[in-house]
Specification:
Length: 262
Amino acid sequence: MKISIIISSYNKNNYLEKCIKSCLSQNYKNLEIILYDNNSTDGSDLILNKYSSNIIIKKKEKISEYSAVNQIDLLKNAFSICTGEIICLLDADDYFEDDKLINLNKIFSKNTLNNVVFDTPKILSNKNFYKFNNKKKFSKYIWPTIFPTSSISVKREFLKTFFDNTRVGMYPFIEVDFRINCLARMIDHKFLIIEDGSTVYRKVPDGIMSNIKKFSYKWWKKRLEAHYFINDIYNKNKIIYKKNYDFYLTKIIVYLLNKIIK
């Protein structure tokens, strides 16, 4: 089966070439690579021009002040022109090991009922590798541990349905990885988690999450948006969502912080 790798990028010059090379060096050859860039200003063009004959490169203006919204917009546009039966999402500051696609082809071919595969990544931080911790959550009404975007591979129809039902500007703090994790693992239930290690997830200072300090106003606001997002997808699928104490605590804190800020 054909596999598409779709990459979203903005000012990832320091990591971009490693990302692209990791896609081009895949042992599996029935693939296409599509990179959408938000008109980077950090010299990324030098790298993109270097590989313009090897991969499909598109550019698009940002549509929002929110990074999560721009990322979803880029991936949606990339999806609209890709042709693979399986789509691998990839952030431009991460990269794949050479056997990622050949392993995915075997997994999807063997497990035909599954729509999404999450491969447990290796975390690269300050030149050291760490194990990704998939924590067990205490309630089925709280979101699961979120596998990062670059660890998500999906069937075409699942991603089409996702984008068809996603209002890009709604829940502007909520990234694509959170949304797909919740939909696949809390609603669809047709997913696999594999201990693969063929994705390298970089912890970088300019990542989407890096700009939100834990327990800051934005952190709490994002947490409340996460609750509202889950409530929304439960309602759309006619499933009762039981709001737990975390929801009410988060709502109270956001309300109080709002009053202080104003």
